[in-house]
């Protein structure tokens, strides 16, 4: 009946003859909403011209180099993130370097003389730095040649400055802080880089001291939408701040879900010790023993690859995806975690990777830091990163659907006869029908959920007894599983 139809633009009682039509848009019910994808990178300001605690939007590698400092870890991370996902926007916020912080340094002590001509190479922060050695060169000459190879461009790429004195090459970090101690320095062990008569003793990076607090940076963007956050810093204080912020963002009244990524450099025992201190559904750590990459580079690459893939399909596992830009930078074979070690690490909330014969690094399994539930009991419910990503996506899509479909709806009891789009009246029963239809899309079209036929019927929609303007709903869901382990019993017949 016409009297049940409500209009937004056509006045009631209009007397001028003619046919009038207002056009409105409603969701088709056959599509899901795209979730906006946006990355954030947090780190320490180097020698750049930018200001701390400023959100620099849609940052490019060249801009990051100017603002954060060309030799800074933050600029290198931005470059790695853009290379890994060039079409996804990334914002940058930095904090000032620590007051009283100190730089780190590594030393390479040469012994000679060289007995043949050749080219040696230092691997510094993942960058191969070759230098020429001639027969008869003494230790002092070889160290000087190595220092000369650290041109201004190489110093920018590595974040290290070189000096030589009496056969000892000293590489000093351009930045200060404890985190610089994670910069890898080693001599190339490739046969082509071995010079007869020359030997080099390497002392790892040490001496970097001082930490900064990312809390102010997190507060600056607390109301800004980000789906994924990369942290260049992984100390305990900042991990706690990031965990708190990620939990806050996931809250029902905030709804700005974001996943945090960070890297870690350590032995198997050190990684397990770290695992005992973390427990977050929305943080992912990718540890490695003696990798050539820096933890912040791994965080930037892994976070970017995961962000893009999981935005395309939040329920699809990430196994075999290449970690772009890390080829040839993995730990040596002796430093790779064994199958047994990786099994323990995965059960302890640490993600793992594999290395192909050609040095390509790939995600093996990406998990969250979550290990126990709110009661302290061990849980696997939030283990894989796909779980929080899928839950976030379903919540975002359902909330968006409700806002778009029922923006000015009236709410009536299930017994009401005035129901439908024409009257802008909705009931709990009608909302349950919408949920059943949408959740079917989430399963049959998107492949995010499973068992929706059963679970949608178990959903409960009811008008709040103390507020007639509020409909309360309980929506059980089961996230789609993944073929992660295939266990076969191959039975040879005699």
Written overview of the protein:
With 494 residues, this protein is α/β, with parallel strands linked by helices. It has three domains: 39-97 and 212-387, no CATH class; 103-206, Alpha-Beta Complex (Baseplate Structural Protein Gp11, Chain: A, domain 3), CATH 3.90.1160.10; 409-494, no CATH class. Helices cover 28% and strands 20% of the residues. It is built from twelve helices and 18 strands. The strands form six sheets. The chain has a five-stranded parallel beta sheet, sandwiched between helices. Helix 7 links the parallel strand 11 and strand 12 (283-288). The chain starts with 38 loop residues before the first strand and ends in a 20-residue tail after the last strand. The mean pLDDT is 94.
Flag low-confidence runs. Answer: none
DSSP summary: helix tally: 12
The portion of residues assigned to helices is 25-40%
| Total count of strands | 18
Roughly what is the average pLDDT, rounded to an integer? 94
Q: Which band does the percent of strand residues land in?
A: 15-25%
Q: What is the oligomer described by this structure?
A: single chain
Order of helices and strands: EHHEEEEHHEEEEHEHEHEHHEEHEEHHEE
The shape, in one word, is elongated
Strand order of the largest sheet: 2-1-10-11-12
Alpha-beta content class: alpha/beta
Largest sheet: 5 strands, parallel
Total separate domains: 3
What is this structure's SSE topology?
Elements: E1 39-44, H1 61-68, H2 73-84, E2 90-95, E3 103-111, E4 118-124, E5 127-133, H3 139-149, H4 152-158, E6 160-165, E7 168-176, E8 185-187, E9 199-206, H5 215-220, E10 228-231, H6 236-250, E11 259-265, H7 268-275, E12 283-288, H8 295-312, H9 339-347, E13 352-355, E14 361-365, H10 386-405, E15 410-411, E16 425-426, H11 428-444, H12 452-458, E17 460-463, E18 471-474
Parallel strand pairs: 1-2, 1-10, 10-11, 11-12, 15-16
Antiparallel strand pairs: 3-7, 3-9, 4-5, 4-8, 6-7, 13-14, 17-18
């Amino acid at each position: 009946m016409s009297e049940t139809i409500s209009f937004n633009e056509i006045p009631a009682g209009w007397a001028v003859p003619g046919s009038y039509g207002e056009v409105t848009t409603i969701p088709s019910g056959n599509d899901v909403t795209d979730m906006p994808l946006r990355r954030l990178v947090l780190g320490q300001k180097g020698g750049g011209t930018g200001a701390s605690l400023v959100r620099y939007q849609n940052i490019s590698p060249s801009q990051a180099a100017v603002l954060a400092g060309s030799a800074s870890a933050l600029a290198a991370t931005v470059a790695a993130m853009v290379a890994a996902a060039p079409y996804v926007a990334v914002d940058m916020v930095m904090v000032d370097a620590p007051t009283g912080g100190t730089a780190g340094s590594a030393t390479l002590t040469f012994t000679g003389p060289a007995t043949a001509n050749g080219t040696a190479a230092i691997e510094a922060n993942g960058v191969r730095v070759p230098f020429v050695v001639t027969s008869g060169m003494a230790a002092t000459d070889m160290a000087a040649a190595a220092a000369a190879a650290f041109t201004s461009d190489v110093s920018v790429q590595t974040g290290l400055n070189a000096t030589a004195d009496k056969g000892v090459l000293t590489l000093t970090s351009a930045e200060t802080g404890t985190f610089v101690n994670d910069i890898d320095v080693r001599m190339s062990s490739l046969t082509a880089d071995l010079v007869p008569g020359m030997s080099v003793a390497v002392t790892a990076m040490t001496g970097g001291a001082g930490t900064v607090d990312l809390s102010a940076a997190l507060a600056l963007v607390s109301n800004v939408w980000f789906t994924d956050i990369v942290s260049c810093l992984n100390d305990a204080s900042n991990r706690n701040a990031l965990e708190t912020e990620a939990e806050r963002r996931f809250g029902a009244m905030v709804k700005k879900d974001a996943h945090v990524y960070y890297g870690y450099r350590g032995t198997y025992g050190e990684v397990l010790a770290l695992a005992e201190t973390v427990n977050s559904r929305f943080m992912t750590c990718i540890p490695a023993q003696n990798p050539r990459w820096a933890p912040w580079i791994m965080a930037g690459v892994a976070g970017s690859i995961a962000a893009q893939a999981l935005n395309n399909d939040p329920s699809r596992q990430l196994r075999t995806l290449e970690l772009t830009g890390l080829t040839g930078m993995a730990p040596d074979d002796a430093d790779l975690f064994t199958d047994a070690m990786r099994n323990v690490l995965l059960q302890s909330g640490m993600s793992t990777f594999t290395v192909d014969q050609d040095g390509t690094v790939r995600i093996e399994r990406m998990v969250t830091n979550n290990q126990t539930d709110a009661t302290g009991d061990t849980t696997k419910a939030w283990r894989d990163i796909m779980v929080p990503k899928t839950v976030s996506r379903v919540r975002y899509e359902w909330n968006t659907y409700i806002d778009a479909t029922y923006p000015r709806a009236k709410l009536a009891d299930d017994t009401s006869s005035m129901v439908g789009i024409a009257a802008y009246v909705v009931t709990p029963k009608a909302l349950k029908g919408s949920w059943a239809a949408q959740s079917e899309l989430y399963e049959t079209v998107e492949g995010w959920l499973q068992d929706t036929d059963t679970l949608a019927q178990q959903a409960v929609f009811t008008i709040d007894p103390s507020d007639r303007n509020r409909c309360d709903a309980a929506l059980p869901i089961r996230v789609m599983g993944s073929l992660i382990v295939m266990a076969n019993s191959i039975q040879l017949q005699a």
